[in-house]
Every structure is written in structure tokens, then in C-alpha cells.
Amino acid sequence: MSSTPLDEFTDLKLFITGPTWLRPEVRQAGCLPEFGHRDSENVKRLGPAMAHLKTLAGAGPEHEVILFNGSGSTAMEAAVRSLVADGETVLHVVVGAFGDLWRNISLANGKKAELLSFAPGEAMDLDRLDAEVARLRPAVVAVTHNETSTGVINDHLAACRLIRGRGALPLVDGVSVFGGAPVDLAGSGCAFYASATQKSLGLPAGFGIAVVSAEALEKAGKVAVRGYSSDILRQIERARKNQTLTTPSATLANQMAVQLDYIVNQEGVAARFARHERLRDQARAFVAGLSGFDFFAPEGHRSPTVTAVLAPEGWTMAKLKEVKEAMRARGYLFDPGYGKLNQDLEAAGRRVCFRIGHMGDMQEQMLGTYLAELGEVLSRI
Question: I need a labelling partner for 131 at 20 to 30 A (CA). Which of 53, 87, 124, 197 fits?
């Protein structure tokens, strides 16, 4: 008998930085009925879900939630299209690959994009940020809350206050940390916080998420060309009805309704954030016990959702791929690091890094089992 495509699919345990492992209940929710996205059935799903997203964001009455069909990058592009007017400058503060991605999105949209760059593995220096904002006087400044490629978490609230104090509009990329750490947007001055479903929320990919302020919506009215699906004013009209602008994945909406109810009403938001801190400390203890390996992110800026690890001197990308295949044979998907970053590090004669994803619904026992297996493999490669 010939095999079907399903016979070829392996159910690996994911320890990458997204997509993440899904709880069985989230998988099962994918089998719930389809519904009309302009029907009251839609509101049953997305009404509570959008309220829960505001809770996770620590948002105040000045903020509203938008769901974009797409990804975190879709939300980030909407921020650029809707909030940077012709002739205005947007300053991108880059601490890794995804901060650079946002800058490239701005350039692709013809925006005047300036760059404040920090070396991979470094956190954002607020004094340098302040000096650059004072010098350039940009209308908009985009920063990264959690840099997925390097495992660096920044003080996004201090950055927003600083940017706001200089008269600019702060935008924040929180794609890999939203749902895994406090965001505390109420009173922060943040105009636009972007995220996505497939990382710390423990859901499949498919929605970009934006938490937008009233000031951002007012600013968008002064931007002449905002596109269609990237227009936050067009989007907010539907969001206020607990809808999406264009047809969503009903499967993902069902899963989101189930998962966000679990996060807020069963696990609890504070408990979820505390679990991510314990997972970070668990990964930290593992790395500290390895000979020749080091943390990529500095102390005080190590992410609760992803740990980036510098391999010993002499290790290459090829060797990390050997580790990946050895872990695949044990039933795990290992993350050999962000490819472009490792290419640059290797070309510069610097140490390459790999990542340990510990976000979403991962439990301490699951991470402990994985790290024990990974430790064995690393000692044998």
C-alpha cells in the first residue's frame, strides 16, 4: 500500500522560537464549527478574545485591539503605513535581526528611515537612544521589546517614556514576548504595540495583533496613503465590532477563543508570566552548567521566552545543524540559531549561537526533559 502525505509528517516536540508547542485542547479547538465572520457567532469568539488581549497587554481605556490577517510583520507594516507621513522620519532602534526587519519594511514602503544600531547580543542603551532622538528629531521611533534572534529583552516602557519626552511617537515590536511577560501599556505612552499569535500565546500563526492608542488613530488621519489592510482606521472600524477587516481563519479564531480563555481564566495572567520567568531561570541554569558555552544576552536583559547560547570557539553552523539532526532523531526540533545572524557571526570569526525556545504553554518538566537530552547530545558532538 502506498503511503499518504500524512505518513510523512513527524510530530516533533518544538523547542524553537515559534511556532510553539500547542496544548491538546488548542489542537482540538481547531475542529470546532466554522462560522460566518460577520455573524453574531463571530462575536462569541472574538469578543472575549479581544478583551483578553487587552488584559494581557495591561492596556488602559486609551488603547484598542486590532487583529490583522497575517503575522506580526503585517502589524508592523501597518504601523509604518498608517503612522509615518510623507516627509517624516522614522528612527529604527535595532538590536538584532527583527529590529532590522522593521527598518526594511519602512524602506520598502518608501519611508525616510534612520538607524540606531547596537551589536548583536547587546541591549538598547537608553542614553544613546536619547541622544539620537534629540539629534534627528524623528516623528516616530520603533523599538524592540524582545529580540527573538538574540534573546535580549529591552525596557520598552523606559524607551517609550524617553521617546515621548522628546515629542516622538513610540512603536514597539513585542512579537515574541506578548503573553509571556508583562507589557503594562496603560499610561506608557506607547502608540502601537505589535505582536502575533504563534509565539508566547501558544497558538498557530495567522493573526498579527496590534494594541493601538487613541493618539495613534488620530495621527493616522493625517497620513495620506495608508493602504487597505494596512490602514488602522479602516481596521479599527471592524475591530470595534469584534471583527477583522478581511475574512479570518475560523479555525484560528476558534483556537484563540479557547486559548485566551484558558490563559486569563484558568492559568491566570500573573501565573503565566511567573512560569515564563521560571523557564528562563531553568534555561539559565542549564547554560551555566555547560563547559565552553555562554549567554548571548547580557545579565539583566535575558528574555523570559527565548535563551540564545553562544557555542564554544571553533563551532560552526554546520556543527549546530548536526545537533539539530541528532535532536530530531530523539523526537525534538532544536533551534540552531537565526540563520542570517549566524552567517554574519561566522564570517566575522565570532562564535555562533543557538536558541532555546521556552514560551507559550511549555511546562518546566517538558523543558527539563529536553535540556537533559540536549546536554547529552552537546557532550557527544
Answer: 87
Domain span(s) for CATH 3.40.640.10 in the chain? 24-265
DSSP letters along 29-88, please? HTTSPP--TTSHHHHHHHHHHHHHHHHHHT--TTEEEEEEES-HHHHHHHHHHHH--TT-
Q: What is the pLDDT of residue 5?
A: 75
Q: Are 344 and 330 in contact (CB under 8 A)?
A: no
Q: Are strands 140-144 and 89-94 parallel, antiparallel or unpaired?
A: parallel
Coil, strand or helix at 306: strand
Place of cell 563547559: 291
Q: In which residue ranges of the chain is CATH 3.90.1150.10 found?
A: 13-19+268-380
Condensed to tens digits (0 to 9), the pLDDT of residues 173-207 reads 999 999 999 999 999 999 999 999 999 999 999 99
- Could you give the 3-state DSSP secondary structure of residue 182? coil
Q: What is the pLDDT of residue 9?
A: 86
Of 3.40.640.10, 2.40.10.270, 3.40.50.720, 3.40.50.2000, the CATH number of 24-265 is: 3.40.640.10
Q: Which residue, 354, 350, 346, is CA-closest to 374? A: 354
Cα of 237 vs its chain's centroid, Å: 25
Single pTM value for the model: 0.96
One-letter amino acid of 370: Y
141 to 32, 162, 216, 345: CA distances (angstroms): 41, 10, 13, 27
pLDDT of the residue at 381: 84
Q: How many residues does the chain have?
A: 381
Position 259 pLDDT exceeds 80: yes
In this prediction, residue 147 has a pLDDT band, given cuts at 50, 70 and 90, of very high
CA distance 129 to 102: 17
Architecture of the CATH domain 13-19+268-380: Alpha-Beta Complex (3.90)
What whole-number distance in Å separates Cα of residue 262 and Cα of residue 41? 20
